[in-house]
Write a structure and sequence with these properties.
401 residues; alpha/beta; Rossmann fold; 3 domains; 14 strands
Length: 401
């Protein structure tokens, strides 16, 4: 039960260790977390995949600490490891750039470039200070530590926490759409994709945000929605539904009641709602043989009736009357080159960092490929996108027929 109540990894501040092989990244991560998380060895390239640990870093709060493979790895396998480290950069909030006493100025310049070109706050961490006769004084962006002796590790954690604290305003998932005392109805189908014994992440997060806003949430399946609405003393301020039952729910909910989906809320929370709304209309011009990428941020066992691999392709074929080619990615897999695709359809991204979701949207925009979102596309396919986004004034949705 405790694990179910933990802050999701996508909502934690991501702190990542970057550097060359044998710079001491893994030793420093172990010292930073106070646990033996990463394997430490004198052999170069011991860390072959990113290693992560969730922890609390006060006063910053819940964080995810990530150790990455060396950025100077070699060979074909080494190139894949470097690519994995670069993927971590897309979701990093604070970069700890690890240098040791054997490093060169050129090594340091390469590390600085990694952070600066992406606008990531960073600290240059000089490890192995125990080997120095005199330890230089700490500066704004540099600190000298020793993972072996623990020297200055506490100060490094304090410096890291201070680097981002208060830098960003708290974003709201739904509570800015509600007033204290409002009633919100959440429609939650129970199907094979729903983890047994719990709700999926966007539903959990929406319930929490409704409560944070002092409103109340009534939760039901689509089969009980009409009965639930009839028993309320007044119309709800908002109905939020799982996208898969958008069509059925829209026919039950009165036009006077605003309606949207969990996926659309996530698109506003973590991405660019306007861009993914515009992308939905691309589906109307899809032709036979066009390639469509359907991408999910999480990885899960695909079951019969899976929304990404089965339901969406079927709905798209029915709507367009043509047979596009569908390709699928999940988890950290997302192509750097999306130009082969006519359209990218992405999930809500509840497990992804906002930085990662915006990188994916930006990648599509820079290459001229439209991108949309599960819930937004499904609303358009049902002819209700304008209704599903009417409470968001920043979105100008084209009229639908």
């Amino acid at each position: 039960m405790a694990q179910m109540n933990e802050t999701p990894s996508g909502e934690r501040t991501h702190i990542a260790f970057f550097g060359k092989r044998n710079a001491g990244k893994s030793s420093l991560m172990n010292a930073f977390t106070g646990q033996q998380i990463a394997i430490v060895s004198d052999y170069k390239g011991t860390t072959t995949d990113p290693v992560q640990k969730a922890m609390e870093l006060l006063p910053l709060g819940p964080v995810l600490v990530i150790d990455t493979p060396g950025l100077d790895d070699i060979g074909e396998l080494g190139a894949k490891r470097i690519e994995a480290a670069e993927r971590i950069l897309r979701k990093t909030d604070i970069a700890l750039l690890i240098a040791d006493n054997t490093g060169t100025d050129e090594d340091l310049r390469e590390l600085l470039n990694l952070a600066s070109v992406r606008g990531i706050p960073y600290i240059i961490v000089h490890n192995k200070s125990d080997l120095l006769d005199a330890v230089p004084a700490e500066t704004e962006h540099e600190i000298w530590v020793s993972a072996l002796t623990g020297a200055n590790i506490t100060r490094l954690k304090e410096k890291t926490a201070a680097l981002i604290k208060g830098a960003e305003d708290e974003k709201k998932l739904i509570r800015d759409l509600l007033d204290p005392g409002d009633v919100c109805v959440l429609v939650v189908p129970i199907d094979k994709a729903a983890p047994k014994g719990r709700l999926i992440l966007p539903q959990q997060q929406t319930i929490r945000d409704v409560l944070e806003g002092g409103a109340s949430a009534h939760i039901c399946r689509e089969s009980e929605l009409a009965d639930t609405l009839s028993k309320l003393a007044r119309e709800p301020r908002l109905v939020v539904t799982d996208s898969q039952v958008f069509g059925a729910v829209s026919r039950i909910v009165p036009e006077s009641v605003p309606l949207t989906s969990f996926s659309i809320l996530m698109a506003r929370y973590k991405g660019d709602l306007g861009a993914v709304c515009r992308g939905a209309f691309t589906i109307d011009s899809i032709k036979d043989g066009d390639r469509i990428l359907i991408s999910e941020g999480c990885t899960h066992h695909r079951q019969c009736g899976d929304i990404g691999t089965e339901k969406l392709p079927a709905w798209i074929r029915k709507h367009t009357g043509v047979c596009p080619q569908f390709e699928f990615t999940s988890g950290t897999e997302f192509p750097k080159d999306v130009t082969p695709y006519r359209l990218v359809v992405h999930c809500g991204g509840c497990t992804l960092r906002e930085k990662e979701m915006k990188w994916r949207i930006g990648t599509c925009a820079s290459q001229g490929v439209p991108i949309t979102n599960y819930g937004i596309l499904i609303a358009h396919l049902n002819g209700i996108l304008a209704r599903a986004t009417e409470m968001f004034p920043e979105v100008l949705t084209r009229s639908e027929t």
